[in-house]
Amino acid sequence: MAALAGIFVAHTGERGIQIAQNATVLDAAMDDSQVTFSLRDNPFSPSDDLIIQNEQVLLGTYPAITREQNSTTGAEHSNGSNVLLKGGTTLKSHTFDGSESISAIRCSGSVEAWYGIIEGTTVRYIAKSDADRLEIFFPIIQITPDNNDILKVVVWNFYPELDDEDGKMFWAVMYK
Hints:
This protein is mainly beta. The chain folds into 2 domains: 2-21 and 88-175, Sandwich (Jelly Rolls), CATH 2.60.120; 23-87. It has no helices and 14 strands. The chain has strands spanning 8-11, 17-18, 23-25, 49-52, 55-59, 65-69, 82-85, 89-95, 102-109, 114-119, 122-128, 135-143, 150-156, 169-175. Strands 1, 2, 9, 12 and 14 form a 5-stranded antiparallel beta sheet that branches. Strands 3-7-4-5-6 form a 5-stranded antiparallel beta sheet, with no helix packed on it. Strands 8-13-10-11 form a 4-stranded antiparallel beta sheet, with no helix packed on it. β5 (55-59) and β6 form a beta hairpin. The model has no long low-confidence stretch (mean pLDDT 90).
């Protein structure tokens, strides 16, 4: 990678980063006013902010939740709906100096996952990898972010098994 360092703005390194599970699915449907839920598995902690479709909820002591957080509306959610840790887990963050440009971001992992690109506090892109395509490529029209602008690559890992030798590893590269 050292020979290619001139083409990177930032990257996680050759080994990547091990990311614990931070996403799952509902194990039963929910109506629009229900204050408990059932998850396939629970990787979350009390006080975590979660997203179920377009609704944000605050986790109490599992299975209790406080619904309609941050001005979202309570809604029905079907069995199997995704439940994500709000904001994901940061895979790579970079603060720009006003002179650096970026033209693409590549993300990959040892298992399928969801990846997001966050500019400041706004999620700009989300894409899901799958078993046949573990790598996601986000082409960006070459831009030069302002001084102190922050760009983050985040990941949502649905897999709880972290006991294999290498764990669930994820990588991100921001290209000039």
